[in-house]
Amino acid sequence: MPKTKPVVPPKPLDPKTQAVVDEFAKKLAERLLEEGVALEELPNIDERVVPLVRRIGNKTLEELAKQKVDSTVKQNEDLGLKVHRSKMIEFEYIFGPVAIESPYMWLKECGGIRPTSELLGLNARGRSELVNRALTDFGAEESFGHASKRFEEHYGWVIGRTSILRVVEAEAVRAEEFVERKIEEQLKIYEASEPATKSDNAIATMLVELDGCEIRTGKLLPAPGGGVTPIRENPRRIRETQWRDVRDGLARPMESKTPLCVSGLKSYPDIVRQLLGVACLGGLTDKTNVVGVTDGGNGLSEELAVQMPNFIHILDKPHLASHLNAAADAAGKSKADRDRWVGEKLEQCHRGNAGQVIDECKTHKG
Predict the structure, then answer these.
(1) Residue 325 in contact with residue 317, Cβ under 8 Å?
(2) What percent of the chain has pLDDT over 70?
(3) Which of 131, 144, 201, 250 is the most exposed place for a label (fewest CB within 10 A)?
(4) pTM for this model (two decimals)
């Protein structure tokens, strides 16, 4: 039988906080019992408890924000600032939007300030990092419309798909900048280091793979005839579709099962440089043997050979089989002979005798 993972107990609370939690839990359970809990309902009673816990969490955050705003306003009033006007804003926490007062305070000698946004960091229509993290996780896995539905299922309130789109795109830009910065830092260390001392965790053999494909991209442009949309009266736009080349690469030590990956709408020199960077993160040095697997497309193995140390190129098995089948057809072999011959040559390559196969093909006489 498969082993079950041990249950990790929650981090203990300080005694005062634990006492508040215990008291609240007792009162909520008593209230539910007063409303009535049938015996057959008990296995699924969490369906009734979860919405209540969400409301309590939302109310707790609202009260916490109110008290912090009141305290900050009081501190500024002690400095002579006065509240000239105030408005209510919404800030989105994981339990839902919270209404928070945002006063504007002013003093002639120092000017004006909005303590809610400028001192507490609570901006109108802002979101907590926990909310943004959840939106990014869902939005990165599926369409933004489905991500909106999943968020509602998990957290009990709605954020529209276009809002999720903006959050995910912003996080993607941040992630890309972070990855590129880390890669460039590693490449500078690699290029500035002495031979054979380019990493403390040097490895003997690094496997890299590189491939390319086309993806459909698009951008919205003003419609040639102008005009506005019928409902929201936004300017009419059309989508311009363009198929563009994207390159994907991965690198991992031969003994590892977890690769580091790079991908982008980049040229082969640029993507291979990034691939070299992640390989350095994995322990590559100038003494590492780099085994590169490609489909034999023009430019892939050539660029890898330029930038990777001690490079050995290997054609992937599906394309090797395709080339061998083409060679058998060119030699005029029947289907039965072709299948047998290709199988034998693949087995020879698998045993490490690729050079022998190449020589045989070169010397073949039809």
Answers:
(1) no
(2) 95
(3) 201
(4) 0.74
